Amino acid sequence: MNLRKLALTTIFIGAGFADIVHAGSLVGDASTASDDAVFNSPTQVANKLSAVSDLVAGNVAPHTTIATGSIGSVDGSVHRYAIRLASGVSRALETGEGGVYELTGNNNTSNKLTVSLNLDVGSDWERINGNGFMVTQNAIASTIYRINTYSKQDYVNADVYTIQSEAYVYNE
After folding, report:
1. What does UniProt give as the signal peptide span (predicted)?
2. How do the pLDDT tens digits run along the chain, 172 residues long?
3. Is the distance from CB of 89 to CB of 63 less than 8 angstroms?
């Protein structure tokens, strides 16, 4: 019986190798295709911000510029940008206006300064990942932005108010 199993096993294995040996043949020249999958670095945004010097506490006119900044891409290409103030608390839901923030004094946390973020190009307020951003309406190489006292702010207490902005390339 063992001899019979061995003979059948040999026949089945031989039949399997027979198919491999008698496989079809390749005809003609090979046709090849290739391409490169390129992973580029994310676009880097240049973001500069400078506070106005010699600001004086007390009665301050609405829309007084307290800082100016600029954003653009390091590669010089045109993009849409999203920018927000990271140092303040967004007041957009309370005021109904995008780009309005409340800054807190560094020396006295009861001191508050309400400011607005304004871009020199057309922009819209948009909520992205839970944060409010001003987003440029069109692709541009760069733009200037200003941090101004809010229209309803008339008195500013003497203190240091940190202004920090975050800018990103915006992809829909």
Report:
1. 1-23
2. 565 555 555 555 555 555 555 678 888 888 888 888 887 777 889 999 999 999 999 999 989 999 999 999 988 899 999 999 988 787 766 666 778 899 999 999 999 999 999 999 999 988 888 888 999 999 999 999 999 998 777 799 999 999 999 999 998 6
3. no
- What is the distance between the alpha carbons of residues 150 and 85, in angstroms, rounded to a whole number? 14
- What is the domain extent for residue 49? 45-169
- Residue whose pair of structure tokens reads 């008698």 in the numeric block: 22
Q: Residue 150: inside a domain, yes or no?
A: yes
**Residue 129 identity:** N
Count of domains in the chain? Answer: 1
Full-model pTM: 0.72
Give the amino acid at 28: G
Dump strand ranges (E) for 86-130: 89-90, 100-104, 112-119, 123-128
- Nearest in space to 43 (alpha carbons), one of 8, 79, 86, 18: 79
